[in-house]
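Researcher: Next entry in the queue.
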Amino acid sequence: VTEIVLRHQSTPRFKVSIRPGLSKKSNEDLEKLKTFMPTVHESHEQSVSLIEQATEFITPSVEDGFSDDVLVVEVSGPDQPDLTLIDMPRLYFTEGLNGGDEEMTFGRLCIEKYVRNERSIILPVVSAKIDICAQRITDFADKYDRGRQRILGIVTHLDTIEGSSDEQKLWLKGIKEATSELPLGLHLVCT
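Model: Structure for this entry, 191 residues:
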């Protein structure tokens, strides 16, 4: 999980740190995390390098590849809004995951912690490169926002679908249905 904290302040600042998770870690993992020193810079020019360095210190869980450690990227300056974004990559849903009987993995528990917050806006991102029928993330989001007042849908890679294909027709039908069902809308991103 990556937490991007944007803050409006008069002085520009960029900081990368790791907030250790609560799961039981080996002493070796804890020692490794302690060796990463939060880095603060006045500009974000070295951001990619700092983020890459920090990710080397995060140990994913064996069961689902997620870690309950949080990579915290703080960006402040006069042009920044007061906003926190949470990025939870690699979450794929397939048929059956919305039933509630599935095992609660690190990734799932972490995501639920954020989506339960009534102040959170849920941005389910689906890729047109993956079968539309297999992606159940909106069903997952519905569990926490039945009225869909906090769900803003995003579809990526639509430009990779062959024109006039059955796949394109299926995606266009799904987009039309989702657009009418989401008060905050469905946004399409081409790569």
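Model: The CA atoms of residues 82 and 131 lie 36 Å apart.
Researcher: Noted, moving on.
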